[in-house]
């Protein structure tokens, strides 16, 4: 089988940030997949998210994104990465990072400041509602919010592939 594009990114050199993972054409429309990378892979000081944190961020983030006046009709999907270092967001259209950035800022600011009941947190509405940790989610969201607020160039561009050595 062929390697998929996301396995070709050098995760050892990847920093926290917001990246375009892929742009797909479906019929006449484009779909843009963003890599919301909240944790630097293999960072000893800031390890991967707990399942409780990532689950609470998923609920709060989905609610916020699908209610945002500007973007709600363009949100296709928001969900966690299996490695627990971030999320994927898929939106309708060929969208660049600069355009989506204010939405990402609003979303993570909302989660970082959230108080009260987590939406959808009941056995009828969710498959594992007990595994939710709002405090951890708020902490992880705040860390990420600060990274993208004073974002550097490397927070928005995947590391360039190293040139392969010629034999
Ligand atoms: Zn759930």
Q: Which percent range fits the helix content? A: 25-40%
Distance between the termini: 27 Å
Oligomeric state, counting identical vs distinct chains: single chain
Main β-sheet, spatial strand arrangement: 1-2-4-3
Task: Describe the protein's architecture and organization.
The protein has 167 residues and is α+β, with helices and mostly antiparallel strands. The protein has a single domain, classed as Gyrase A, domain 2 (2-Layer Sandwich), CATH 3.30.1360.80. Helix content is 28%, strand content 19%. Strands 1-2-4-3 form a 4-stranded antiparallel sheet. A hairpin with a 2-residue loop joins strand 1 and strand 2. Helix 1 packs across helix 3 and helix 2 packs antiparallel against helix 3. It is globular, with a radius of gyration of 16 Å. Bound molecules: zinc ion. Zinc ion binds next to helix 1.
